[in-house]
Amino acid sequence: METHLFSPLQLRDLTLKNRLVMSPMQQYSSPDGLVGPWHLVHLGSRAVGGVGLVITEATAVSPEGRNTPFDTGLWNEAQVAAWRPIVEFVQAQGAKVAVQLWHAGGKGSHAHPAAGFHYLSPAEGGWVTKSASAVSLDQQHTPEALTGPEIQALIGDFAAGAQRAVAAGFDAIELHAGHGYLFHQFYSALANQRTDAYGGVFENRIRLLLETARAIRAVIPAGMPLLVRLSAVDFSSEEHAWTLTDSVRLAAVLQQHGVDVVTASAGGLSAPPKDSVGPLYQVPYAEKIKADTGILTGAVGLITTPEQANALITTGQADLVVLARELLRDPYFPLRAAQVLHLPGTAPVQYQRAFPASRH
Length: 360
Prior knowledge:
GO terms for molecular function: FMN binding; NADP binding; NADPH dehydrogenase activity. The protein is an alpha/beta fold.
């Protein structure tokens, strides 16, 4: 059978009804790390709109892992209880839901974007940030380098967060290992100047991500998919910048450590050249990783039309289409795409009068 945007995809024991994914997007609406009505509407409306997989915004595994005091969390049982009804609602609409676990590392402790997104010192309600090395990542402050025992504790935080994700009912887990956050701070030599077992050569710089993936795989059900988002390139001409070749190597090792899908984004420690940003500009990263390793991939980056999304799947450039801003503009993009492409997306009964072409 022809593979297209509305073909199902099997990930371990999980079946996605189509290849459309809601990308994690920070909402900065979670005092004390708690989700609430905003998240129910934000995530639930995209599930009603027909995506196969909803991935939550980056959710911290410790208070110090946040970027701002308003990021979501999974470091206590109150947060598990707050997530559970939202997860259940998303699933009731026919979508699956994954939590994206993260730690901001040296990019943490910032004010709400509406207040300027500046660094918050501990005296201002922030916290001491920790990274691979004492390298400034925001030109506002310099984090402290993590000690060996702190690294081991951090891996434990991720494993505990994964266990809470299982308790909250999530279908899958994604590790945020891109965009200049903690894992990226370790695997990119732009931020990692360590000389111990977590720094220096490639194998050492990827160690934290691999050990965390292994720790999570050990505490979640065997049938639960584990995803990773990478920054495939650093957008830097520096000699030791992370490259697509590095990402291919890393994806192959992640696959051996029980990772099922790699979503290939880019940047975070440096910005892309302005003349390089355009429709589908990050798709070649997913295509290369998939072609060279065989791992399932998600494509991102200014994908805005049903035709673009469908072509990525039918040509085999990627296995999933991960949409961010386009789903903010149009929560019902999947239902509209089914109409445009004459493919069998299914609108909920309450909305079928508006999407009659999407009925089976």
